[in-house]
Automatic annotation (TrEMBL):
Residues 1-35, 93-113, 152-171, 514-533, 766-786, 796-815, 820-871 are annotated as: Disordered. It comes from the Eukaryota. GO terms for biological process: mitotic chromosome condensation. Residues 1-14, 515-525, 861-871 have a biased composition (Polar residues). Residues 626-769 form the DUF7801 domain. Residues 43-151 form the Up-regulated during septation protein domain. GO terms for cellular component: chromatin; condensed chromosome; condensin complex. InterPro entries: DUF7801, Uds1. Keywords: Coiled coil. Pfam families: DUF7801 (PF25078), Uds1 (PF15456). Transmembrane segments: none annotated. It comes from Parascedosporium putredinis. This is Up-regulated during septation protein 1 domain-containing protein. Residues 203-269 form a coiled coil.
Amino acid sequence: MKGSSPKTRATSSGPEDALRANPKETDRPRASTMVDLDDPIQVHLLTETALFDSRRYEILSEEEVDDLKKQCQSMAQRIEKTRANLAVQIKRTPIGSQASNRDSAEQADLERQATERRCDELATELWNLERRIMEPQRRLLEHTAAILQLTHKGSSKKQQQSSVPVLNGMPGSPESLYTYSNGRSSMDIDFQTPIEIPLKSPIREQTNKLREEADRLKQENDQLKAQSDAFGLEVDALRRETSDNEREISDLERKLETLNSSLRDVIVKFNPSKNSNFPDTISAVRQEQEQGQSRSRSVDEEASTAIAMAQAEGRLDALNNQITDLLLGGGGELELDDRISYLQYSLRVVEAELMQAVDRANNSARSAPSGGDDQRVLRELWDMVQDGFSELRRQREDRNKIRQEKGLEDDEDEMAISKLTEHKAVLKRQIKQQRELNNKSSGEKDIELQNKDAEIERRILEARNKEDELQSKLVELSATEAVLASKDAELLDLDKKVFDLEEKLSDLNMELSEARSTSSGTQAANPEELEAKDRRVRELEAELVEMQQILEKSRGDASQTQGMLVSALRDLDTLEEKTTKLAALETSSKDLESRLNMTEASRSELQTRMDEIDGKIETLEELDGKQREIKEKNDVLDSLNMMVVELKTELTIAQAELDGAYGSRAERAADVAAIKSNDQVNELHTQIDTLKTELDQTLKQLEDITRETITAEREKLEIEGRLDDTIAARATLEAEIEELRQRLDAEVLGSREKINKLQEELDTQRLKAVPTGEGGASRPGAGASMLSEQFRATMREERKKFQEDLREEQSRRRKLEEELTRLRKAAGPGKSPSARNRRPGQLGDRDLPLLSPSPYEFDATATNGNEQPDTLNTLTVMARYPVSFLSPILA
């Protein structure tokens, strides 16, 4: 059969001889005796021919090379096995017929024909296998030749000896061809030929199934380990975010303390005598600023007062000059007596005219006491409001510029951000508790729960204390508004008094000037009238001095009250903004309390489920132990199968050698029949009994192994059922977490709507008109109410625009979440083999999505173990909230 085995010729130049020839290797087998490898010219020509012929050969990838190697190795094993079986069958072929009777000759002939037929079948199978192995070997050889042709280059000696002249572009000697060596061979066999289970083994199919199931369970175990690692990374990210949230809470507390101190300062300013016992919390810088502002206001008020006094004195001088010209022009041509009588008549006429002017002024003042002043005050107030808004806008722009220079985002809508941060912190605390409880003992869990309860109670107490403080501050704010209203009324009264005093002062100046002119014109007249006029002049001068003092005092009080009113209005605007923030804080504290109650309810539920998950994790650990046991049993089974194969092979060889040495079965039967009972027969019977006993023991061992394999299969199916139950429980828990997340989102939206309604109500209360005037007159300041309505409409439009932007951001977030779920399902591993036996509509462990992070988590952090989920988590967080919400968190 040596001539019929192409494998013998093929393997002579097989993978182990595929290296390039080297003349130094004397022990290398030669492909032909006519090749002289010591001749460099012949080797050079052969190399050029090989390189030219291998130009069009196909270069394969590493995977294709490995597949072809595996095919060659499996076919080589089958060829060797077929060749061994063929050799055994040839040995078992009967040499000749030594039987005497006809029946034994026919039986021997039948056995010979069967053996020959079996040999022919084995020879045909061997020839087919050797022909089939030629194709992968050819492809591997072509791949090796193509790679060598592609990577072939000149020797380094050629570069070192570049000074040697080159003849027609060819080197002087092809010695450089042998200095390049490539030790890589794509046809090297990595391992020895193992002994496999025969093709007709009764338990080979079961063993293959067990191996497949064991491999599948190993893959699932690796996936569970990867998920646990991802969960650990998420827990670390949550811890970092918790520390960030604590820092934000401390910042919020500092803001509240600043707000309390400013509110305390305002209360002390409005009533220093009553609230003098309040502690002083104003810093030195703020005191210096306020002192500078008060000095500048006092300087401005003194300047305006001086200007007003100069204008009044100018008007008085002009009136005195007019009266003097009138008197002189009327009596220039008369005698002294006539002039005196004309003067007296003129004084009476002037007095009457003055009385009428005073009456008209009083009537007009009573009919419209403060119309013009109210309009002026309202205009001043509106200008102050506009200045305040422009100042706030300027400060906000400066702060945004500073933050942009530092590389930070805008920090608008701080209250909404703090509220969302609190909600996110609550959810992350729940997830953190749920995940950390899996890795702790029961005692540590109890201690941690007690600590969490104490922390929650402490936060509830802090929230209630802050709520009480807010209530007290709101009461103080209402008292401050009442004080402002009273100050406003006092200011109006002072304005009216100042106006009356100015009129009286002008009248007294007129009378004084008339008296002086009269006294200058009647010095030579009656001395009694002169004395009376002098007394009248002195009285008028005294009244004038008194009126000027009263006027100065009234102006001082008015300027002081005006300054207090301006500062109070500014503080009122600040207080209104702070009241809005306080109302939002109050709402968030109530919401936090309700969330805490819900957290208490859900924590017990999560604790129960965590216990169930712990039990299932123990079940999975038991499953892992069973898998190891199955692997050990598989190894034992493989070793026993190999022993059985070896024993069968040795038995077949021994039987063939026995047949060749002692003849066929018929011949041996004839010999045994001819031999009577003797010692040899007894020994043969003893050997036969021993072999039967060994065979029975081997069969019993095989049955025990089969029984253990069936038991292991049963246990494996049981464990798979438990694993499916565990995966179903995990899916249920994920669905409940998703439902809780959606409910929290809905509650967040509802809280936003409530905040908007409260904001509208607060704007309505804040922008109410000034109370009605004296005597039940109609409410003045219709222009101010119109401006207030316009302001409210503008704020309402801005709020609606903000709500629309928020809805758009939420719709984008939902779309990105759907895309995230789809990508995770697409990136997940394939279905397990048990999914093929699943009923339609039943979910398996591969059909369930992985536990996605909380909607309020941001991966910021790149915490999921690979690059793709990290990018998707970042997109989810950025799409879930507006950029203005995420800017402090990203900062």
